[in-house]
Amino acid sequence: MRRIARISLAAATLAACCGPALALGTSGTAAAVSEPKILPFTQILRRCDFSEYQYVHGGYYGRPSGLLRVEGGELVTDIQIATGTPNSRYDVKLIQVPRSSAVTCNAGDAGVAVAPLTTDAAGAGSTTVRGPIASDATGVWVSITRPSPFSHMPEEFYTTDAVFGL
């Protein structure tokens, strides 16, 4: 048992001291990748220009989280949800700003990347959304919605707390 502990400690020490040096020796031909940003979410329904809808409140208990990064001229976000509605489909939108409140942010619109997220029987799911960076984009935010079968307003919604600069 002590031998396993010593070997594990030695491996961790080696990785901590030599890991950065080994990473510096890698090829410089890789595409530019930014540091990932942690995306905090809240139950606020927003318009495409990031303004809030008045008098609309959330009532569900999903716990979405995500990371946002730039990879070779593309925005990439990895989204996970825990304790969402079981066996449901969510729409995840990566929306670039500035954006007029008169412009929609549907799939296929300029500056919008969309991907589905389907939860399992426990209400957990994940997806990755990728899209090109618009030439005039200064920031980005993420919207997660579960469509309602009886209304144009989503039944469940989560949006990022802030617009993240590019």
TrEMBL record:
Top-level taxon in the UniProt lineage? Bacteria
Q: Which residues form the signal peptide?
A: 1-23
Cite the entry's keywords alphabetically.
Answer: Signal
Q: What is this protein called?
A: Secreted protein
> According to the entry, what is the taxonomic lineage of the organism?
Bacteria, Bacillati, Actinomycetota, Actinomycetes, Mycobacteriales
